[in-house]
Amino acid sequence: MIQLDRVTTVQNPPKLVKVVLTDRKRRFSGVLPPIALSIVIIVIWETISASLSGSRKFLLPTPQSVVIHGLLARDAYGQILPSFVRTSVLALGGFGVAIVLGMLVAAVMYRFRWLEKAVFPYLVALQAVPILAVAPLMAVVFGYSFVAKGIIVVLIAFFPIPANFLLGLRSVDAGLDDLFRLHRASWWTRFWKLAFPNALPQLLTGFRISAGLAVVGAIVGEEFFQAGVPGLGIRLLQYLQNVEYNRLYGALILSSFLGIGFYLIFTWISNRVLRNWHESAIQQGT
User: Fold this and answer.
1) Which residues fall within 8 angstroms of residue 69, CB to CB, at 6 or more apart?
2) Where are the beta strands (DSSP E) in the chain?
3) b/e string for 36-73 if b means 16 or more Cβ within 10 A?
4) Which candidate, 159, 129, 156, 128, places its Cα nearest to that of 223?
C-alpha cells in the first residue's frame, strides 16, 4: 500500500503539469500568430510612412500619430466613440433581423421543397444586386432614417444565414431520418430533434460570416444616407473631405475592430455550443 501511494504521488503531478502546459500551449498558439502578424504590419506601415516625401507624408501618418492624434486626443475620441456606438447599434439591429428572417426562410424552404426551388434563385439574385443601386429606392420609401440604414444591413448580411442553415438541414443522415419516420415522428419533431441539431454548425458559421457583413452594411448605409446621428461611415467621409488622415485611419481601425469583435463573439458562442459534442469544436481545441 505504501509503495502504491508513493507511485501515485510521484506520477500524478507530472500528468497534471503536462495537462496545464498543454492547455497553455493551446492558448498561446492561438494568440501569438495574430500578435506576430500585427507587429509585422506595423513595421511595414512605419517603413512606408517614413519613406514618403514631406509633401505626401500626410497621406499615411505613422501608427503612433494615428493612435495619439486620431484616437486618444480628447476631441478625436469625443467624436469617434459615439459614432462607434451608433454603428454598433445599427449593425446589431440589422443583424438580429437578418438572423430571424434567415432562419425562418430556411425552415420554410426545408419544409416545402417546391418553395426552395422557387425562392432560392431569387435569394441568389438578391445577393448579387448592387446595394448602392437599391439604396436610393430605400431612401424614397423610408426616407433617410435609421430604418433605411437597417434595411441595407439586412440585405447585405442576410444571404449566408439561410444558405448555410438550409445546407445543414438538408445534410441530415438518411438512416436517422428513416428511423424517425419509422417511429412516425411528426415533421416538427424531426426538425427540432434531428435536423436543427445537425444544422447548428453550419448555422453558426453563417452567423460568423453575416456578423462581419453586418458591420460592412452599417458603414455603407451611413455613407450613402449621411443623415441622423453620425456613425463611423459618416465620420470616414467627413475626415476624408477635411483631409484629417489621422482620424480617418483611426476610424478605419475602429471599424475593423468592430467587425473582428462581432466575428470573435460568434466564434466563442459557436465553440461554447458545439464543444461537447461536435468534431469541429473539438478539433479547434486540440
Assistant:
1) 61, 76, 246, 247
2) none
3) eeeeeeeeebeeebeeeeeeeeeebbbbebbbebbbeb
4) 156
Q: Name the DSSP class of 183.
A: T
Per the listing, cell 431612401 goes with 139
DSSP code of residue 192 = I
What are the φ/ψ torsions at residue 158 (nearest 5 degrees)?
A: -75, -50
For residue 182, which amino acid is it? L
Query: Worst-scoring range by mean pLDDT, 26-40, 144-158, 180-194, 250-264?
Result: 26-40
| Torsion angles phi and psi, residue 183, rounded to 5 | -90, 10
The interaxial angle of helices 131-142 and 196-225, nearest 10 deg, is 70
Number of CB atoms found within 10 A of residue 168's CB = 22
In the predicted structure, residue 284 carries a pLDDT above the cut 70 = no
Residues 6+ apart with CB under 8 A from 202: 164, 165, 167, 168, 171
Three-point CA angle 275, 281, 285, nearest 5°: 95
Nearest residue to 154 (alpha-carbon basis) of 101, 81, 193: 101
d(CA 48, CA 166): 46
Estimate the crossing angle of helix 74-111 against helix 196-225, to 10 degrees: 140
**In sequence order, what are the residues at sequence separation of 6 or more whose Cβ sits closer than 8 angstroms to the Cβ of residue 172?**
194, 195, 198
pLDDT at 108: 94
Residue-level pLDDT at 86: 93
SS3 content of the chain, % helix, strand, coil (to 5): 85, 0, 15
Collect all residues with Cβ–Cβ distance below 8 Å to 32 and sequence separation of at least 6: none
